[in-house]
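Ticket #4471: structure export looks truncated?
Reporter: QA, pipeline team
Priority: medium

Steps to reproduce: submit the single chain below to the structure queue and open the exported record.
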Amino acid sequence: MKLDRRRNAVRDDLADIRLEDTVSAPRYATPRIGRIAAPIASCRRRPAEDAPLDTEFLYGEPLDIFDSADGWSWVQSGVDGYVGYVRDEDIGALTSPTHRVTVPLALLFPSPSIKVPPLCRLPMGAWVEAVEACHVGGEHFHLLRNGGYILDQHVAPSAEAPDWVAVAEMFVGAPYYFGGKSWDGIDCSGLVQLALQMAGGTAPRDSDMQEVELGQPLPLDPTGLRRGDLVFWKGHVGIMLDATHLLHANGFHMMTSIEPLATTITRLEGKGLPATAMRRVDCA
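Actual output as written to the record:
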């Protein structure tokens, strides 16, 4: 059986012990558990800085770790199952998250004050473990177990945004970055995945997976589309903002932008890329 190595921990020399009955490998590994300890961690196809970036893992994201060598670990995300290589310095011990960042970027301060230089910026979707609430003046902070203070209005105990498309709209103007999943840079399928997750849904990482697995198929007809419908091309996906406008992170504008769907269709057809699918996603 040929497994998709983006979502199955299989190498020529090693495989996940849980796949022992499915795939033959010289040896199998029982994973140890960790989490992402950097605000954003690059997940690369090979253990090298110049290897292709396949996706990004976010702070607090749980990991299965199968192998570590030369400063890199071969891991699988506990959020979407994506497999790749992450630098050891970006991995820490597993924690018990209590809150998730709900704004495009949240500042982590060294003390409970918005007037001190922040320690770092945490992306939307990052998981944090709050251990103490703190009120200073008119501000409400949470002290995190690993240090630093984050504003209460920037986190929530769960991801329950009422409108996932509105979450995606928050990224209008964010730079396009292939493999990215944050305000610092995001790609088309990363935008879809993150927005759905923040509304309590789930989504696979890449557009070809989303084209097969998300929602229900619609006729390949741009009429009759509504807010939240997805339009797919080879290697690309966009979100319908309303009946006629498309919201998408794209390499043409090099940012997340809104434009008439007809304009996108014409431009991509001119490059030999007709729309391949349209799907309806229902998510709270």
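Status: closed, not a bug. The export was complete when the record was re-opened. Leaving a note from the reviewer for reference: The mean pLDDT is 96.
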